[in-house]
Design goal:
mainly beta; 4-stranded antiparallel β-sheet
Length: about 110
């Protein structure tokens, strides 16, 4: 059974930082492209960051220079370091694994207070 479990969300003041983690089981983690998506209230889900199996990364323009995605294959975990958080970063953040098949976590709420 494939499981993706996000953690690390919470309430943070503007300018603060959070580190999200996504622990993955049930797949060969190292071959999967891992992504973080977010869905803000009243908006569509959007891609925040992506990291391929080889380590290449892609970021949404809105988070470039503030967020960093990384992965630790030995621990089947992907991270999202979020710095300089703003109220507009408020959303439920979802972990996603892609390699042909696509799997999702249940999400973790991040609230950026003004």
């Amino acid at each position: 059974q494939v499981q993706l479990v996000e953690s690390g969300g919470g309430l943070v003041q503007a300018g603060g930082s959070l580190r999200l983690s996504c622990a993955v089981s049930g797949i060969i983690f190292s071959v999967y492209t891992m992504c973080w998506y977010r869905r803000a209230p009243g908006k569509q889900r959007e891609l925040v960051a992506r990291i391929r199996s080889g380590g290449r990364t892609v970021y949404a323009d809105s988070v470039k220079g503030r967020f960093t995605i990384s992965r630790e294959n030995a621990k089947n975990t992907v991270f999202l370091q979020m710095n300089s958080l703003q109220p507009e970063d408020t959303a439920v953040y979802y972990c996603n694994a892609l390699f042909g098949a696509k799997y999702w976590g249940n999400g973790t709420l991040v609230t950026g207070a003004s």
